[in-house]
Design goal:
The protein has 13 helices and 12 strands. The strands form 2 sheets. Strands 3-2-1-4-5-6-7-8 form an 8-stranded mixed beta sheet, with helices on both faces. Helix 7 packs across helix 10. The longest helix is centred in the middle third of the chain and has 33 residues.
Length: 356
């Protein structure tokens, strides 16, 4: 298999390493930085460094676009112009609405791996970066089913857990669980620095709570300014909700309401436990087989319906009929209850479905 990577920083470089080491793929790559390309070759991430996008994607079966979010629409457009008709194209951007809205090409599937590190650059890339990581996919009604399945299998090969979600929901969720934490980390370190300056004294050694909460403070502006701007409305909304919640805590402190504070703190413990259980949940795999027509968007329809219900597709396979008029989609779902729910949802879409 031939894979191409456009942009060979931490994520692009890790995609390349995972494709080569875990899947035995031949990987070509392009980056505007000649230094990054040299480093990628030296790290063993690329078989071939290319001078332009067209050269990198020539003959590729899958292309990963790993450039800053503000550059994604233009870069994806260039890749699609150069890629073959049987090539699936995806990106790894932290926001999805802009790039998904920019193209209706059936070869493109928006993507976002929930993986990374504090250190940027291909020199920090790892083949195991995506092991066990959620990898959001944002298919649309135009998405080609066979290409979506190919990408899904690739990501599973990387060790990731792909899950379908629509672009609007993705950006709203990420504003809360990723972008606001970065904003808060920056605010906390700024407040601590102000306390130091105001007191004119050495700041005491910080405890683990402060270090944990501010681990992502000051993350690369070359990446994060673009993320903030591309998700500005959703991020501003999430910040507003955060401010309201903090004002609620301040009000309870002001009136000396220890009972409210205890309930609030206990609720946070329960919420965190449920979130972790949802992330780490698994169980026995159950196979469902659904008969579907061969029409654009049918795989995206299935994946998004299950994704909205919180049912994760552990793996999938397509078995088209000889005349390509219809086919069978095999879905592997972890856990009996999610499998029952998935069967109900697929049937609710009007597709015949049964457990294998």
């Amino acid at each position: 298999m031939k894979v191409a990577v456009v942009g060979v920083g931490l994520i692009g470089g890790s995609v390349a390493l995972a494709a080569r080491e875990r899947l035995g793929a031949t990987v070509s790559g392009y980056d505007r930085s000649a230094r990054a390309l040299r480093s990628a070759v030296e790290r063993g991430a690329l078989d071939r460094a290319c001078d332009d996008i067209a050269g990198a994607v020539a003959g590729a079966e899958a292309v990963f676009v790993a450039v800053p979010v503000e550059d994604l629409p233009a870069a994806v457009s260039q890749v699609l112009e150069a890629a073959g008709e049987d090539c699936v194209v995806t990106d790894v951007g932290s926001t999805k609405r802009a790039v998904v809205a920019a193209t209706d090409d059936p070869r493109f599937v928006g993507g976002h791996p929930l993986a990374g590190a504090e250190s940027a650059g291909v020199e920090h890339a790892r083949a195991d970066l995506f092991e066990g990581a959620a990898w959001y996919l944002t298919p649309t009604s135009n998405t080609g089913g066979i290409l979506y399945e190919r990408l899904h299998r690739l990501l599973r090969g990387f060790g990731a857990r792909p899950a379908a979600i629509d672009a609007d929901t993705h950006d709203a969720i990420l504003a809360t669980v990723s972008h606001v934490p970065h904003v808060l980390a920056n605010v906390l370190v700024a407040q601590a620095a102000e306390e130091l300056a105001a007191g004119g004294e050495r700041l005491p050694a910080t405890g683990p709570s402060f270090r944990d909460a501010t681990r992502v403070a000051g993350a690369s502006s070359s990446i994060w300014t673009g993320i903030y701007m591309s998700n500005a409305d959703a991020l501003a909304n999430a910040i507003g909700r955060t401010i309201a919640a903090l004002e609620g805590v301040a009000a309870a402190l002001g009136r000396g309401d220890s009972e409210w504070l205890t309930d609030w703190n206990d609720a946070a413990a329960g919420d965190r436990r449920r979130l972790l259980e949802a992330q780490l949940g698994g169980g026995e795999l159950f196979e469902l087989r659904a008969s579907v027509p061969n029409r654009p968007g049918v795989i995206a329809e299935l994946a998004l319906e299950l994704g909205r219900a919180g049912v994760n597709i552990a793996d999938m396979a397509l078995y088209p009929a000889p005349d390509m008029s219809e086919g069978v989609v095999a879905l592997w779902i972890a856990g009996d209850e999610p499998a029952v729910r998935a069967e109900e949802l697929v049937a609710g879409l009007g597709f015949p479905v049964a457990r294998a």
